[in-house]
Write a structure and sequence with these properties.
heterodimer; A: alpha+beta; seven-stranded mixed sheet; five-stranded antiparallel sheet; 19% strand; B: three-stranded antiparallel sheet; 3 strands; globular
């Protein structure tokens, strides 16, 4: 009995045990199902998500900045190039106390107050997402010192970069311009142009000059490297590489040596010179004095230096050749002469008697000739040679302002020339319509009189005047002025910039012959630029000009000694040579230089001598003192 | 003895079915270690050495008669407890935990021994009191379980203490602990959860917090979980291919050869690989259940059931933590992760399973 019960209990126990075992089995099944569901969720449903995460975990896209194209002159002389160097850069986002960090770093490398100022200015300009250069061009020793202490400065990096260098510095500053660090405004522009991705990794962009206008050619195409990195961010291997495409090299139409010759010829004068090949529009020289050191701007200029440059009375940052607007003065006369001939206002042989002044009918106001007492009997030829004002007062008055406007605008006055450089100004060629619009005033006859000698409202840029001179020299056939002769891709055939004819004025050859011969006589005895034409070994044609900076009161005599330096007259000279078959045409402006014949013309002569004869003047030969002589 | 007899004698107490499955795991382990260690043969050879030791231990235990197992239960438990107390007093601190004990030349981790000793002790205790099982006996068994677990939690070693607690609970459950007590305790446990929470170490709390939102601190505390989940998820259905796991080979995955080796497997062999691995575990567990069901004594039933269920828990906790449904508690993937101690413990367990199976049969014939 007892034994029976025990046995039954035992079986019952086994039954209960197996029941619990089955329950355990069910528990195991549920748990397994949870695991399976989890695997299915991770590996099937969310596969894409985790796949992307795992790729972004390991793959970095690293942009490879292309080499910027070089700038060469027409003979292959390098005018802008790249060199590699090391910079000390800081990631501002990782820095809590910038001043303390800079103080620490200055124990390792030389950091000048200017560096710091420049760096702080940079910080305000661009979003602090990346690294900013504190010091560039570290020496090898400095690189080693910083690298050894690298662990102390998580926000500091030494980077190898390509830097832009301008061998001619201030001589070509207004022509070549400079590259500078990409700022917020540049980014916005790049985004608008939908080329921002091509600037991933780029630090610099062309800011002015050819560097700016040919940015798209020079920059090149950014390459990309897909790099697999480990958890520590170290590159393990390169998965794919799209090589960058170097920017195109540009061969400019300019002659670097001529640029230097012109620059030196100016001596201490401020001013501008533009020389153009009249047969194709190639710009041979493009000078604006004073220039500046473009290297100052590449990594951002410090405030102090900027203010010094910007506040200077000499305005070195002003591109006078492109943007400077001055009254053309007497250099307008050959064009006025052509207008007179064109409209038949003046026959070549018709003479006037010049008493030294001009009076409008019914007025007692005297418009004086530059030469008191006058030039006597003057015909069209002589009016150019001696630069007779009275002749043109009358011519302009008879022709009328609107005819004058109409004819002169054909030469491009009052319009941009379309040079391949950004920021050109258009000058001003007045008309009665313009005055009505601008001042709500009628055009007075007196306005026409002063307009006839290039004063009054008239304004031209040196580039415009050079272009008009080239058009005249080339018998009225104008070619678009341009700075780039050839685009040379790193690989592939160079592309020549073709001469593009803009217009043919179809000037009567007889008129041209007369005006040109008169301009040639300007540089000969009896002409206003006889000094500059002395001993010339080719046929040189030209015209002097003087642009008033301040108006003279009636009866007052201009006295150079009484007028402060910056209010003295500007000296102009336009020229082309050889006169019979012009290969070069130019316009020279010497600011506050006084008389065109004595200050501007010799500058032109040196440039012509160099271009046509290969003559190189002695370096830094002093040009005449900054004082005008008595002749114009 | 000729060769055939020798083979028969060798195989006498081994279970061919379990043996085949274990062989499969150990093969996977070596293949995977080679990849996880970036082709480091020393890791593979080291594990081969561990396998040799563990296999020998398994063979010895499998050949031990059942009453031997009964006989060593108490001394083993007492010895283990002494060692745990010693660890608490003189243990060596490493990685912020006091788990190791220097004895002469070697460093041992007594908590590993307790994975076997605790269920063995409890099963022995229930066997001893089988005839007169009272509620009081369950209470004593719980004390036998709580003492070592408390010491191990204090070390702190959450992973091991969970596994030991689980193995002890399985013994209690299979021994017939009444449902009322289990449910009552569970409710009490839930009620005291806030108190337990405050008793946890900071790093354990962080691990649990991270479970719910690992992205909170992706490069800090949640890093393990996130990288594990990325590895598993990016494996997809077919996997990235052997030796091609980017998470594995580019250092993103922490503890690749030990606790996170399952992520390596998942990444390189995908869902298909996971099914295969789960299948293998199910196979071993199924065999364990059969052995348990056929076990002849109360002691062997409890012991075999606990070993089988603990083995499953082991695997579940590891795969769960790697795939992000459980906190990272530091449990290796059984039979696959690198490491001699855990392998030895596991193989001792399988040795016992085999002994339970084969010695019963011998009794029958």
């Amino acid at each position: 009995m007892n034994r029976y019960i025990e046995l039954k209990n035992h079986q019952r126990e086994i039954y209960y045990f197996r029941l619990r075992l089955v329950l355990s089995l069910g528990f195991v099944g549920v748990m397994l199902f949870i695991l399976l569901a989890r695997f299915f969720y991770l590996q099937v449903i969310r596969y894409e998500y985790f796949h992307t995460l795992s790729d972004s975990n390991r793959i970095y896209v690293v942009p490879i900045v292309p080499n910027r194209g070089l700038l060469l002159d027409r003979n292959g002389v390098v005018m802008a190039q790249n060199y590699s160097g090391y910079t000390l850069e800081i990631a501002p986002a990782k820095v809590t106390d910038m001043d303390a960090l800079i103080a620490e770093l200055s124990r390792l490398v030389t950091i000048t107050p200017k560096d710091i100022k420049r760096f702080k200015k940079l910080l305000t300009e661009r979003q602090a997402l990346e690294t900013m250069p504190l010091r560039s061009q570290l020496s090898d020793e400095e690189v080693a010192r910083v690298s050894a202490q690298r662990f102390r400065f998580p926000a500091v990096e030494v980077k190898a970069r390509l830097f832009r260098e301008y061998p001619f510095s201030d001589v070509t500053s207004h022509l070549i311009g400079y590259v500078g660090r990409i700022n917020q405004k540049d980014i916005e522009q790049l985004e608008e142009d939908e080329i921002a991705s091509n600037y991933m990794g780029s630090d610099y962009i062309g800011k002015t000059g050819v560097e700016q206008s040919y940015e798209k050619e020079l920059h090149g195409t950014t390459g990309f490297e897909q790099v697999e990195v480990d958890a520590g961010g170290r590159a393990v291997r390169v998965l794919s590489r799209t090589a960058p495409q170097s920017g195109n090299n540009l061969m400019l139409t300019l002659d670097a040596k001529m640029q230097e010759v012109a620059e030196q010829a100016f001596g201490a004068y401020r001013g501008a010179l533009v020389a153009i090949d009249p047969t194709n529009g190639e710009v041979l020289a493009f000078v604006s004095k004073p220039g500046y050191d473009p290297a100052l701007f590449i990594d951002g200029i410090d405030t102090e230096t900027w203010e010094e440059l910007n506040g200077s009375l000499d305005t070195p940052l002003n591109n006078r050749a492109l943007r400077g607007q001055y009254p053309p003065g007497s250099t307008i006369k050959p064009f006025m002469a052509l207008a007179g001939l064109h409209y038949g206002t003046r026959a070549p042989a018709r003479t006037i008697s010049d008493p030294g002044y001009f009076m409008l009918p019914g007025s007692r106001h005297q418009y004086r000739d530059w030469k008191s007492g006058g030039h006597g009997s003057v015909d069209l030829y002589k009016s150019i040679v001696v630069s007779c004002d009275t002749y043109y007062y009358g011519l302009a008055t008879e022709m009328g302002i609107d005819n004058m406007h109409s004819y002169l605008s054909r030469f491009g006055f009052g319009k941009k020339t379309g040079l391949d450089m950004d920021g050109e100004t258009s000058g001003l060629l007045p008309s009665s319509e313009w005055k009505a619009k601008r001042y709500q005033q009628i055009w007075y006859p007196g306005d026409t009189v002063s307009a006839g000698i290039g004063q009054g409202y008239n304004l031209v840029t040196p580039l415009q005047l050079a272009f008009a001179t080239a058009t005249l020299a080339n018998d009225g056939i104008a070619f678009k002025p341009h700075l780039v002769k050839e685009i040379r891709p790193a690989r592939g055939e160079p592309v020549m910039a073709e001469a593009r004819m803009m217009f043919d004025l179809q000037i009567d050859p007889a008129h041209l012959k007369l005006v040109k011969s008169a301009m040639e006589a300007v540089t000969k005895p009896g002409g206003t630029a006889v000094g500059a034409g002395y001993g010339v070994e080719y046929r040189m044609a030209g015209k002097t000009g003087t642009a008033q900076v301040i108006a003279m009161k009636q009866g007052e005599k201009y006295d150079v000694k009484k007028v402060s330096e910056y209010n003295r007259d500007h000296a102009w000279f336009i020229a082309f040579a050889p006169a019979d078959k012009p290969r070069i045409a130019l316009a020279v402006l010497a600011e506050n230089g006084g008389h065109g014949g004595s200050t501007a013309a010799p500058i032109a002569r040196k440039v012509l001598d160099y271009y046509l004869l290969g003559k190189v003047p002695k370096p830094l030969q002093a040009v005449a003192e900054k004082a005008g002589s008595e002749s114009d | 003895m000729n060769a055939r007899q020798l083979k028969n004698r060798f195989m006498l107490h081994l279970d061919p079915v379990l043996l085949a499955a274990l062989g499969g795991f150990l093969f996977i382990s070596m293949v995977l270690l080679y990849s996880a260690s970036d082709g480091n043969w020393w890791r593979v050879l080291g594990q081969l050495g561990n396998i040799a030791v563990a296999f020998s231990a398994m063979w010895i235990v499998a050949n031990m008669p059942l009453h031997w197992l009964m006989r060593i239960a108490v001394p083993m438990y007492v010895f283990g407890m002494l060692l745990l107390i010693a660890v608490a007093l003189f243990g060596e601190i490493s990685h912020g935990a006091r788990r190791w004990l220097h004895i002469g030349v070697a460093t041992i981790q007594p908590s590993e021994l307790m994975k076997i000793a605790v269920p063995l002790m409890m099963a022995w205790y229930f066997e001893k009191n089988e005839a007169t099982l009272k509620l009081r006996n369950y209470f004593v068994a719980v004390i036998l379980l709580v003492m070592p677990v408390a010491l191990i939690v204090r070390q702190p070693d959450l992973g091991t203490s969970i596994l030991i607690a689980a193995s002890g609970f399985y013994v209690l459950f299979l021994a017939g602990l009444s449902w009322r007590i289990m449910i009552g305790t569970a409710l009490a446990g839930l009620a005291s959860a806030p108190f337990l929470w405050s008793a946890l170490h900071d790093y354990q709390r962080h691990r649990i917090e991270m479970l719910f939102d690992p992205s909170q601190d992706a490069l800090g505390k949640g890093y393990h979980t996130i990288q594990g989940m990325i590895a598993v998820g990016s494996g997809g259905i077919l996997g990235k291919g052997y030796m091609n796991g980017t998470q594995t080979h580019l250092d993103f995955l922490p503890e690749r050869t030990t606790d996170f080796i399952f992520a390596v497997w998942s990444e390189e062999f995908g869902l298909i690989g996971n099914l295969l691995l789960l299948g293998l575990y199910v196979f071993v567990i199924g065999r364990g259940f059969i052995i348990t069901a056929n076990a002849s004594t109360y002691f062997t039933r409890l012991m075999a059931g606990s070993i089988t269920l603990t083995f499953f828990t082991y695997a579940f906790v590891n795969m769960g933590m790697v795939s992000g449904i459980l906190p990272v508690v530091g449990v290796p993937l059984p039979l696959v992760s690198y490491g001699g101690t855990s392998l030895l413990t596991l193989m001792l367990g399988f040795g016992m399973l085999m002994s339970i199976n084969t010695h019963k049969q011998l009794v029958k014939t």
